[in-house]
Amino acid sequence: MQITEMLITNKTARPGIPITPKGLVIHWTANEKKGADAVANRNYFNKPTTEASAHYIVDDRQIIRCLPENEMGYHVGAKSYKPEAVAMLSKYPNDCTIGIEMCVNADGSFAKTYQLTVQLAADILKRYGWTVDKLWRHYDITGKNCPAFFVDDRTAQAYLGKTALAAWNLFKQDVHKLLTGFPQKPQVAVGNSAIAVELTLATTGKLIAGVSYVPVRALAEAAGGKVEWEPHTRTVTVNGQKLACLFDNGTAFAPARELAALLGLKVEWDGTRKAVGLRREI
């Protein structure tokens, strides 16, 4: 994977404010016109009148770095933010996130853009010691329909042939597999069961006093569950049920068996690989 550095100099979009990243946000350019590739979008960011920016722009041929990762970009600005984003990131998530823009120009290959973005995301996560629970859609932070192919079902079907949630879960699985060498959610039939989610404890969970703890949001979303966060009481609910959690660096962890029960899954432990497998009857 090669990264072309073309740092913008537009001070309106590059304030030069230092940040300590806590998460990685995925966007789309929403510009399907021919020629709207990574260079074109970088040049747009560099116009003196442009107030938006992201750290990386990816098309089907290259990855362009527009900002250093330790500088703030303007990619998730909004009048208000979702409570979970405020609790896990900050009151102004631009000050602690890295942004990636995915190009969708008509004369490019989205499949290649997708693969380059997976590689870039895995590289960033690896360098910071993060797991896929640090991946965010723009939508997760502000509610904006971005990237639309991970938020809107019709757009997701057009680009990836899946529902938006399935497409987002697939992206996280692809990043996880490249990051760890293991699939996060293999769909392999075993007897009368199918693996719903698999997380390797060495990289995405915790083993405490013989009890396996897993990241709630990443696992529940991968299994199709609904996670809600109440910041005032620090309460996590999964499918409407409260769940006792531990918190580490802004991430909620819960015992695998308790979370599995709320998701209608069964837990299996692979001692050789030190992995927790969660299965759903089919």
From TrEMBL:
> Per its UniProt record, what InterPro entries does this chain match?
Amidase/PGRP_sf, Amidase_domain, Cu_amine_oxidase-like_N, Mao_N_sf, NAMLAA_amidase_2
Instruction: Report keywords, A-Z.
Output: Cell wall biogenesis/degradation, Hydrolase
Single Gene Ontology MF annotation? N-acetylmuramoyl-L-alanine amidase activity
- Classification of source organism: Bacteria, Bacillati, Bacillota, Bacilli, Bacillales
Q: Which GO terms describe its biological process?
A: cell wall organization; peptidoglycan catabolic process; peptidoglycan turnover
UniProt name for this protein: N-acetylmuramoyl-L-alanine amidase
Species assigned in the record: Brevibacillus gelatini
Which enzyme class? hydrolase
Which reaction is catalysed here?
Hydrolyzes the link between N-acetylmuramoyl residues and L-amino acid residues in certain cell-wall glycopeptides
Q: Which Gene3D superfamilies match?
A: Peptidoglycan recognition protein-like
Q: One Pfam family this chain carries? A: Amidase_2
Q: Where is the N-acetylmuramoyl-L-alanine amidase domain?
A: 9-148
Query: What is this enzyme's EC?
Result: 3.5.1.28
